[in-house]
Amino acid sequence: MDLGLSGRVAVVTGGSSGIGLAACRLLLDEGADVALCGRDATRLAAAAAELTARHGAARVLAQRCDVLVKAEVEAFAQGVREWRGRCDLLVNNAGQGRVSTFADTTDDDWRDELELKFFSQIHPIRAFRPLLDESDSPAIVGVNSLLAYQPEPHMVCTSAARAGVQSLLKSLARELAPRIRVNAILIGLVDSGQWQRRYDAAGTTESREKWFAALAREKGIPLGRLGDPAEAARAILFLGSPAASYVTGAQLEVSGGVSRFI
Ligand code: NDP
């Protein structure tokens, strides 16, 4: 199946690591030009170097940008405008989860988490809307979490925020129709930078393989392992591509079957 991504312009927030970087790789493989952002300039430069070594500098735009800083997101959009003049696909992927129960989540933690989850969608959508309007087949994909539907007490504020984001994306799918399609992927556990940091923080002597295998068992993942970032990226590409031209307001679970809801 041809996804129809060749010659398209895709923007990936948080494209310097994990799922976002995997999406950049696949988008370039499919023939799309890719603009990516992240906060850490060194990590971003490393990602850009990898992508341009394979696909050439002309097809990649890497711009440092914190999606929570409106002016930086607007500058990123301006960079893409000057580079290609339009955006066919916006992937709102930047972010991370917060591990905390209600008892150990302060009011400031709540504010930070709600700001991260909502404004990592709101700022890019506002800033890139005019560029999406320049496309003949525009789409937005929000990278969300299974926690939106299946909250976990040890990730209480992330779960609540994720449910709110899912509601936001559903509303946007109606408000932006019929011009712009808006869909979400729901991630379970994907072996990315986030999980590497948690493994490092655990300070365990156990090998990475054993630690991740034990994690998959503990979480009861039916497919028996964490996902690979490329597996999440493939779902992003499908929903964001012209091949999904009749899909909007939908969510695609990429979780190895860990959800328990119907
Ligand atoms: P990674 O940590 O590997 O990648 C996160 C990316 O987002 C990095 O490029 C990071 O770069 C960037 N980023 C984070 N905050 C900001 C910000 N404020 N502005 C711009 N860029 C930012 O994690 P994942 O690939 O796992 O995460 C991708 C998305 O998937 C996240 O939204 C995450 O919450 C979600 N998700 C992941 C799950 C998993 O199991 N992996 C589960 C559920 C959801 P930098 O730090 O340099 O800014």
From TrEMBL:
<dbReference type="Pfam" id="PF13561">
    <property type="entry name" value="adh_short_C2"/>
</dbReference>
<dbReference type="InterPro" id="IPR050259">
    <property type="entry name" value="SDR"/>
</dbReference>
<dbReference type="InterPro" id="IPR036291">
    <property type="entry name" value="NAD(P)-bd_dom_sf"/>
</dbReference>
<dbReference type="InterPro" id="IPR002347">
    <property type="entry name" value="SDR_fam"/>
</dbReference>
<protein>
    <submittedName>
        <fullName>Short chain dehydrogenase</fullName>
    </submittedName>
</protein>
<comment type="similarity">
    <text>Belongs to the short-chain dehydrogenases/reductases (SDR) family.</text>
</comment>
